[in-house]
Each structure stands twice: as structure tokens, then as C-alpha cells.
């Protein structure tokens, strides 16, 4: 569209100004034209589509808006497409979230441990409390607690002191807890408070405090742990200056002495300690009387190894019956959650993937009918039967879970479900979990993390068995072994953990030496740590150290050892990973685990190989439970890279992004076109305004000529 340009105004003004008598008028006209142009520019700046038709009288705003609206029709279509795609994407993501929730419900149902939950109860909770783990066996156990364990507690004898902060004579203390070596404690502050602080800082296995017995202050020691093995067996005061009246040993003088076996401690000269609470073990019997199984002695009131899988806490003496039974609550809750979340996914898709004939509208997921097929497959799988299991317990129908014919949703009969889990927890587990058989005890199915065909058995060949990191001495120790105090240090680096211990000097057999080294290492290890090392005697009579774990990540170095062992010092030994094939495909070995590599037909198959020697043609059969089968179907839908929903989400994201780019570009073009139209109409108004100004001048000029002519005629007539 070409209306004119600004040069027209300049050229017109130049032509008009050739008449000298019109200079003043021309100058005025130029000013007027300039003013008209400024009005138009101001109007464009203040309103995007507003141009006042001051000169033309034309409604230029309506004209421009109409032209822009016509050009915006494709953009509106793009916006509609973007909205539709965004809505589809949002609903698809919500549906995917529902399916991922179902998949999360399936995870615990793939584990045997989920179905091994046990519940322990006590007939006398105030006497014995019981908590069961998955390893507990169902049954009733009669107990009788005859004695509770308690910690040793003693106090200084003699006359109580008037102050807890007044210093006594200089000296030190030597305290022994149980069979541990005595600990000597320096006392920079010999007041009762200072002595207590020094003992507690030494961390010897007993806690010191200051008490007031009503007559004065005493130092009290309490074993940190219960039982006679943790008794305070020695408290000896050594005076720096025994002749003073405030000698340290006088704190412990008096006529009272402890007579309890394993506790009595004499200190100072003729003095002793007061027994507040003797060290005592817990004692209990099973079956009602001691004559049946004998008395069970425990150092603590927490008894965790009497009934396998049951932790007992003793509170009082007396009888109690511990009952262990299957606990259906956790399993019923897990299965019910699965049913609820499957129904939620089915309902959401039904509401958003159907066509409403009355309103003639389709849901945002209506076009995704392949997902309806996949949902049908999921329901079919969940309600199908597992081959090889008894017909009475081979499907969810045996648990009271069926499909409602009217709604298509799953329906769970809670009574039937609870009874099935209570009566046959392993049968229920077999429905959900993977089961397997193997022709070798050393090659067993461990896990299945991929969607692979398990209809045929897998053939496994173990070419190399996994080994531990092992260090073996060269000496034959079948004869008596002597360990001297100058050659008794054992130091090992086990998987980066430094373990150092001193072996008591003496004469040993090979086995008793192994026992002594193991005990020394355990005692020398930091609290809470568990040195990853084992010791044994080989068939040739040599001492052998090895890591507990298997594989190339295991490392063992003997840094020092008694020379009699014949160990190689400073050489790091490592383990080896298992190696083998599954169906002729080289598997990945790590420790004692063989895994099918990614991109192969066995990807995701995990085998546990505990065989100590190579084995060939081991046949492993795997039967997938409902949880694995359903999880595979859901992975085919939800996987972000290969799943049907994942790929569609990626396509919709790309579509929304592309539409957004097109809309942004279209908006830029519309803005540019609008600016151009505004500029063109503004220029037109300027030209018309200039022309109007010149027309006004010419009208005035002609009128002036007419007036002048009339005046001349009048003068002639008069003359």
C-alpha cells in the first residue's frame, strides 16, 4: 500500500516559495504542516492503533484494526492448536503419574520379605516384651524370668566429705572394668568433682558422678553396661604423698567392703567401696522349669538370640508366653493400595479418553486408544493365573480380587484377602513374586530388572568362580606356637581400613592362635566398626587371612605379623570377580553376581553365584509373578525413552515448543505490519494536512486578488 512520502511536503513548499510576496505565508504553511505531523506521531505513541484523522476525516483506527484482525486469524489457529496440545500433554502426564503410582505399588510385592512379616505378642507385656522380624518362625514359647540384669554401682566408703570441690591429696586412680586391662587415670584436680570429670573423660566403660547421701558427698561409679562381664573389678588409689591427712586413698577408707563375687574391691589401707548395686546377669528359662532346658544367662535385659527373629526386652521377673504368628496387615495394605491405584488409573482414562455422544465432544485422551489396549492387557495380566501354582492359589481371584462386570474396575473382598494372607502367606507370595529352580545350589536366581523372555530355562556356564582377597602364611603351625612380647603385633589393611592389635604372649595351637587374633582385632577395632576380615587354619596348618567379601574390589595387605606365621609383609592381595556366560552370552561379573549386559536378550537377569569352582550347563528356570509381569507392561508405557506414553509426551512437548516459536514469530510480524500501517497512515495525514494548508493559502490569495480588483474598479469609477 503506497499513500505518499514525506518528501512530497518539502517539494510542494519549495515550489510555493518562489513568489516573494508569499514568503511569509509559505513559512506559516510549513509550520502548520510540521504541527500536523507531530500530532499524528503523538497519537501513534499514545495508542497502538489510534491515529486521529484530523486532516482526512477518515477513521484510520478502525481500518488498521480490521486489517490486523484479518491477519491474526492464522495466529488464533496456532493458539488453539497450542492450547489443545498443552491440555493433551497435561492430561497425559497426569495419567502417567497414576501408572507410575501403580508401578511403585508393585515394587514391594516383588519382594519375598514383604510376605514374611511376623507379629510377636506377650502374655505379660510388663514382664517380657517381644518384637518379631521377618525371620521369626510361628509358634508359642513359654519363658520364665528369674533374674534381671543390672549394672554394677559402687561408691566411696568411709566418712562422706563436706565438700565436692575441695582438693584432696595428689595421686592417680587405676580402674578395671570386666576383663579389660586396668586403666590408669591422672588426676589434675583431686576434688570429687575433678575426679569424676577425669574418669568420665577416660571413657573406661563406667560413669562417675558425685552424690550427697545426706551426711556428705561421695564419688559413685556406675558400669555403662549391665552384667557381670561389665563389673567394676578394681579401683586402686595411688598417693603422691601418702603421709598427708588428705591423702587420696583416704577417700576410699572405711569399714565397708564389697563381698559380691567379681565386684569386691579393696583400696587404700584397710578400706573398701560401698556396694550400691551389684553387677548381675539376666536369667531365664524356656519351657517353665530349669530342668527342661537349663538356665539361660544373658548380660543384658535385651535378649535377641534366644528365639530366632524375635527381640525380647525383660522388664520384671515372672512367667510369660511369647506367641509368634503371621502378620497380614502389611501385606493386605500393600495389595489393597495396588487395587485402589489401578482403579484410579482406569477411572481417569475412562473419564478423559471417551467420547460424549450427547455433547459430541471427545476427551483429551480419546485419540490414545492404543493405551486403552495396554490398560486392558494390564487388567488381564493382574487377573490371570500363574502357571505351575496350585489352582487354589494361583491368581488374584483366590485372594478375593475380581473384575466388576459393570464398571470394569477391580473389586477386592477384604475378608477373603485377609484370610488368604493369614492362612497361606507363602502361597500369596508365590502369586506376586518371581520363583525359580536351578540344577546347582551354587547358581541361583537373584533378581529380574528387565523385560525379558523367561518361558525357557537359562543355560549358565561359570568359567571362573569369585574369590576373596587372601593372604596365607608359609609356616606349618601344627606344632605348638610361641608368641613373644617383642613379636606380637598384627596389623592389616582390609579394604582401606587399618586394623592393628597386640596378641598376648604365650603358647598356642594354630586354632587357639586364630581365636586369640580374632578376639584381639575385635577389641582393638573402633566402637561400632566390624573389621572385614576372617581367619582360619588351612589343611597344611598355615594361618590364612581373607576378606569377608568377594571380587576385585576386595583388598588385603599384611602390614605386620608375628614372624612365626611366615606372612609376606607389604604385598596387597585382591579378590576376583565371577566370570561366565548365560545362554552363551558373556555376562558381567561383580563379586559373586552375574548380570546380563544391557542391549542383550538377557539384560536385567541377575544371578547369585556362590560356587567355589567352575560349573557347566547349569539350568535356571524362572517363573515371573504378577508383580513382575505387570511392572513390565507399565514400563512399556511409562519409560521416558521407549514407553508409549514417554514417546508421546516427548512429541507433544516438541509440538508445543514449535507452536510457541511460530506464535512468537507471528506476533513479531503482526507488530511490524502494524507499525508500518501506522507510519503510512500518519504520512497520509501529513500530506493531506499540508495540501489543506496550501489550499487555504490559495483561497486566501485568490480572495485577496478579488478584493484588490474590486478596489481598483471602485477607484476608476470615482475618477
Q: What can you see in these coordinates?
A:
This protein has 13 helices and 37 strands. It is of the alpha+beta class and 719 residues long. The strands form 11 sheets. The protein has a 5-stranded antiparallel sheet with strand order 1-15-3-11-12. It has a 5-stranded antiparallel sheet with strand order 20-37-22-32-33, with no helix packed on it. Helix 8 (369-382) runs antiparallel to helix 12. It is extended and about 160 Å long. The model is unreliable at 1-51 and 254-271 (pLDDT under 50).
Descriptors for this entry?
single chain, 719 residues, alpha+beta, 5-stranded antiparallel sheet, extended
Biggest sheet statistics = 5 strands, antiparallel
Mean pLDDT: 82
Tell me the structural class: alpha+beta
Radius of gyration: 48 Å
Shape: extended
Identify low-pLDDT runs: 1-51, 254-271
Distance between the termini: 62 Å
Query: Beta-strand percentage?
Result: 15-25%
Order of strands across the biggest sheet? 1-15-3-11-12
Counting DSSP H or I runs of 4 or more residues, the number of helices is 13
Binned, the helix content reads 25-40%
- Strand runs, count: 37
Amino acid at each position: 500500500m503506497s499513500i505518499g512520502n514525506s518528501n512530497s511536503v518539502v517539494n510542494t513548499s519549495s515550489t510555493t516559495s518562489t513568489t516573494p510576496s508569499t514568503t511569509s505565508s509559505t513559512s506559516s504553511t510549513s509550520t502548520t504542516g510540521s504541527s500536523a505531523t507531530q500530532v499524528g506521531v503523538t497519537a501513534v505513541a499514545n495508542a497502538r492503533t489510534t491515529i486521529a484523522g484530523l486532516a482526512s476525516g477518515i477513521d484510520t483506527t478502525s481500518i488498521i484494526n480490521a486489517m490486523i484482525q484479518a491477519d491474526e486469524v492464522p495466529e488464533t489457529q496456532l493458539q488453539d492448536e497450542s492450547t489443545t496440545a498443552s491440555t493433551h500433554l497435561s492430561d497425559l502426564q497426569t495419567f502417567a503419574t497414576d501408572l507410575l503410582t501403580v508401578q511403585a505399588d508393585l515394587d514391594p510385592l516383588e519382594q519375598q520379605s514383604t510376605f514374611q512379616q511376623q507379629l510377636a505378642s506377650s502374655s505379660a507385656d510388663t514382664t517380657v516384651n517381644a518384637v518379631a522380624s521377618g525371620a521369626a518362625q510361628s509358634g508359642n514359647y513359654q519363658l520364665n524370668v528369674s533374674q534381671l540384669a543390672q549394672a554394677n554401682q559402687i561408691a566411696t566408703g568411709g566418712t562422706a566429705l563436706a565438700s565436692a570441690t575441695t582438693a584432696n591429696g595428689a595421686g592417680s586412680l587405676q580402674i578395671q572394668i570386666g576383663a579389660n586391662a586396668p586403666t590408669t587415670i591422672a588426676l589434675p584436680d583431686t576434688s570429687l568433682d575433678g575426679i569424676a570429670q577425669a574418669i568420665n573423660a577416660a571413657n573406661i566403660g563406667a560413669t562417675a558422678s558425685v552424690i550427697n547421701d545426706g551426711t556428705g558427698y561421695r564419688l559413685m561409679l556406675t558400669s555403662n553396661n549391665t552384667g557381670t562381664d561389665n563389673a567394676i573389678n578394681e579401683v586402686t588409689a595411688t598417693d603422691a604423698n601418702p603421709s598427708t591427712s588428705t591423702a587420696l586413698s583416704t577417700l576410699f577408707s572405711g569399714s565397708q567392703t564389697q563381698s559380691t563375687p567379681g565386684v569386691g574391691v579393696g583400696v587404700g589401707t584397710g578400706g573398701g567401696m560401698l556396694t550400691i548395686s551389684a553387677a548381675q546377669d539376666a536369667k531365664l528359662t524356656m519351657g517353665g522349669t530349669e530342668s527342661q532346658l537349663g538356665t539361660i544367662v544373658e548380660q543384658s535385659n535385651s535378649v535377641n538370640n534366644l528365639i530366632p527373629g524375635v527381640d525380647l526386652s525383660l522388664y520384671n521377673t515372672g512367667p510369660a508366653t511369647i506367641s509368634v504368628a503371621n502378620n497380614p496387615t502389611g501385606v493386605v495394605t500393600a495389595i489393597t493400595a495396588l487395587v485402589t491405584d489401578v482403579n484410579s488409573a482406569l477411572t481417569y482414562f475412562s473419564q478423559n479418553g471417551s467420547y460424549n455422544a450427547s455433547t459430541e465432544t471427545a476427551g483429551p485422551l480419546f485419540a490414545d486408544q492404543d493405551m486403552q489396549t495396554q490398560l486392558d492387557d494390564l487388567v488381564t495380566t493382574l487377573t490371570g493365573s500363574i502357571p505351575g501354582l496350585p489352582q487354589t492359589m494361583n491368581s488374584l481371584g483366590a485372594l478375593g480380587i475380581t473384575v466388576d462386570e459393570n464398571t470394569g474396575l477391580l473389586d477386592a473382598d477384604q475378608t477373603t484377602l485377609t484370610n488368604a494372607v493369614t492362612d497361606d502367606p507363602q502361597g500369596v507370595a508365590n502369586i506376586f513374586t518371581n520363583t525359580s529352580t536351578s540344577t546347582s545350589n551354587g547358581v541361583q536366581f537373584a533378581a529380574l530388572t528387565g523385560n525379558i523372555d523367561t518361558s525357557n530355562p537359562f543355560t549358565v556356564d561359570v568359567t571362573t568362580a569369585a574369590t576373596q582377597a587372601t593372604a596365607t602364611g608359609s609356616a606349618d603351625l601344627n606344632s605348638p606356637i610361641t608368641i613373644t612380647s617383642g613379636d606380637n603385633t598384627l596389623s592389616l589393611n582390609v579394604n582401606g581400613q587399618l586394623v592393628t592389635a597386640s596378641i598376648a604372649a604365650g603358647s598356642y595351637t594354630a586354632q587357639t592362635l586364630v581365636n586369640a587374633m580374632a578376639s584381639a582385632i575385635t577389641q582393638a577395632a573402633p566402637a561400632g566398626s566390624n573389621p572385614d576380615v576372617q581367619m582360619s587354619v588351612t589343611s597344611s596348618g598355615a594361618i590364612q587371612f581373607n576378606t569377608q567379601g568377594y571380587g576385585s574390589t576386595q583388598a588385603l595387605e599384611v602390614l605386620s605379623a608375628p614372624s612365626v606365621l611366615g606372612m609376606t609383609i607389604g604385598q596387597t592381595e585382591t579378590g576376583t570377580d565371577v566370570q561366565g556366560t548365560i545362554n552363551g552370552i558373556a555376562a558381567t561379573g561383580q563379586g559373586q553376581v552375574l548380570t546380563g549386559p544391557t542391549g542383550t536378550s538377557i539384560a536385567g537377569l541377575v544371578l547369585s553365584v556362590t560356587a567355589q569352582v567352575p560349573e557347566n550347563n547349569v539350568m535356571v528356570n524362572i517363573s515371573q509373578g504378577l508383580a513382575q509381569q505387570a511392572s513390565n507392561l507399565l514400563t512399556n508405557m511409562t519409560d521416558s525413552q521407549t514407553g508409549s506414553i514417554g514417546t508421546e509426551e516427548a512429541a507433544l512437548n516438541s509440538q508445543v515448543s514449535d507452536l510457541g516459536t511460530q506464535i512468537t514469530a507471528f506476533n513479531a510480524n503482526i507488530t511490524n505490519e502494524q507499525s508500518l500501517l501506522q507510519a503510512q497512515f500518519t504520512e497520509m495525514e501529513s500530506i493531506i494536512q499540508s495540501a489543506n494548508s496550501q489550499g487555504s493559502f490559495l483561497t486566501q490569495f485568490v480572495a485577496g486578488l478579488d478584493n484588490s480588483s474590486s478596489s481598483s474598479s471602485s477607484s476608476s469609477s470615482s475618477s
